What does this fold into?
Amino acid sequence: MIVGIVGGGQLARMLALAGYPLGLNFVFLDPAPDACAAPLGEHLCGGYDDRALLARLAARADVLTYEFENVPEKSVEILSALGSIHPNANALAAARDRLAEKTLFRELEIPVPPFTAVDTRADLERAAVRIGLPAVLKTRTLGYDGKGQAVLRNAGDLDAAWARLGGARLILEGFVPFDREVSVIAVRGRTGETLFYPLSENTHQDGVLRLSVSRPGDPMQVLAENYARQLLDKLEYVGVLALELFQTGGTLLASEMAPRVHNSGHWTIEGAQTSQFENHLRAILGLPLGATAPVGYAAMVNFIGTLPDAGPVLAVPGVHWHAYGKRARPGRKLGHATLRADNRQDLRAGLDRLLALIEPNADPDPGKPPLARQFEVAAALGE
Ligand code: AMP
It folds into this structure.
């Protein structure tokens, strides 16, 4: 069987790595000649809107999927007509536009921060009054990893934010003073069978994920699963879905969803019985899903901008190294390390060692708390 993937970055690469033991082969569509998944399959090098290449991708593949949500709408239409694509076009449309996404959450009675659409400078003025400040102005489409966003702290910030983002269709969201961020990774098969991984507790720096920790037995697990299940069923979803949430007190507010495998689920490669990558492939191929039960405790640290020296990192017991084969560039995700342990104490000890090796390279903002604060937050929440 051949799986066709729109996108040839690290998510496509890790899907392929999970697919080889299942006897699968891969074809990727990606405009970058050095796409990091390319060495693992056939690479169709060209634009995501290249009709001839889209047709070739569909002809070569038995099933189609994608590794990012900004696939052009027209391309999804073309691929849907030519082949079997999962998750479906509705799921992609909902995830592509922050306004559609939040409207769907609200329709399903999944709590969300206050939000409103902003198309003009006058809209922004009204929205700031209605939502209140602080608030976050975001582009409705094409934003990721904190790109296309501006935090408005007071009325004086509106002009600069508008100068930077105005012109695109925007959304203004209330700023959530969250206790922590979590995500739930879910997988739904073709028969509707649905499984969930233990919550990931996530720390971002400058809008980019730095650290995820698996939280087996988390008190918010059931609530997060209920919200994710509503989305999966409503969208008749097939594949892996990530739902990112803000926790304030005993409440979870939906931040966004990703209709694909997700960075906060990378720890499942070693920290769960079946990884999110294998389960995504099983789901889209109509195979039985694999168990999502945790294997002890796990944490994942992203390597951003530079890769640390492998030697000292690999000397930390329980560490697994994942380099994506990408050229170093500031702000670029180049790889990650997963730490797996049989108990929380060992995980914490290992993570303290690992973070000490990585943080000096990460240009941490001196005004911001170090990543290790993650565990202090967890303790305060009643670990
Ligand atoms: P996003 O691209 O929407 O996932 O945003 C990236 C990160 O920015 C989130 O994971 C949060 O850490 C932060 N962020 C985004 N929106 C908000 C918000 N409304 N309130 C507080 N923090 C936010």
Remarks:
- The pocket of adenosine monophosphate is lined by residues 113, 136, 143, 146, 173, 175-176, 181, 204, 207, 244, 255-256 (CB under 6 Å).
